[in-house]
Amino acid sequence: MTEPVTDPEGLKAVIEELLESWTTEQRTVELRQRERRADATRFVAIHSLAAHVHRLGGAALILVGADRTLESMPIVRCAYESALTAMWLAQNEAGGGAFVSEFSRQQRATERSLAKSNNPKFASAVNLPYVDAPDIASNSAAQARAFEQMCGDFDGGVDLYIYYRLMSAYSHAGLRVVEEYIRPTEDGADVASLLKTPRFESGGMWLFFLAASLIWGGTAFDYIDVARRRRSDLRRAARTIGIVRDLQLTNAAQARSSRGAPRAT
């Protein structure tokens, strides 16, 4: 059995192939999902998130090529979150309504915050989209609201969320970022010097997660593409880096999804 590709150059090659495969496929796409009812909202969300994953992948690769891997981390994290969300929507027929209702809830919260602003332009911004959208009852609302719970719907979800937390440490204004711009003394007890360029050297690991995100985001869209024209490319890429192409919902999540949405006849 061939060993999975783990070196940065090999991972970059996989990413470039996936980006090329996505952007060159321009034929008209017919959207339908086997044994599931047609759901325009869910299908559009899956497409848009998958497209966003690929745009983010291209941007991250540019930064990595410019020796700015640390700076690419918020982009890799967003690609990862978008890919898992797209996969969750593709696997969870009850997820579409929950996804929209959660955004409406967030918009209403934003509107309340804007009303408190000292800036008159912000305070008068009371026509945000989706504020008045009706709530759609869904037994997947908790998962749509909290990414940790969404990850928990997948087999291996605990680890999926741990990876997200690791990426988050490099994406927020916290001590993990601060440490990248200092050089400690040999005993690690003090700061030897301040740096203007980060010490970050973990490019290969995060390129792996970027490649995985492209595979999972692409696979989510492949589920609703009747022709499934990228299936072979996605399978080959998954084998190359040693991951499963198809993230599966747990039995409990599958049962909840089945109860929350009617099946196609």
Structure description:
The protein is an all-alpha fold and 265 residues long. It is built from 12 helices and 2 strands. Strands 1-2 form a two-stranded antiparallel ribbon. Strand 1 and strand 2 form a beta hairpin. Helix 1 (8-24) runs antiparallel to helix 11 (231-241). The longest helix is centred in the N-terminal third of the chain and has 26 residues, at 40-65. 34% of the residues are buried. The mean pLDDT is 88.
Concise overview:
This protein is mainly alpha-helical and 265 residues long. It has helices at residues 8-24, 40-65, 69-91, 95-115, 120-123, 141-145, 147-152, 157-169, 175-180, 203-224, 231-241, 251-260, and strands at residues 182-184, 191-194.
Topology:
Blueprint: H1 8-24, H2 40-65, H3 69-91, H4 95-115, H5 120-123, H6 141-145, H7 147-152, H8 157-169, H9 175-180, E1 182-184, E2 191-194, H10 203-224, H11 231-241, H12 251-260
Antiparallel strand pairs: 1-2
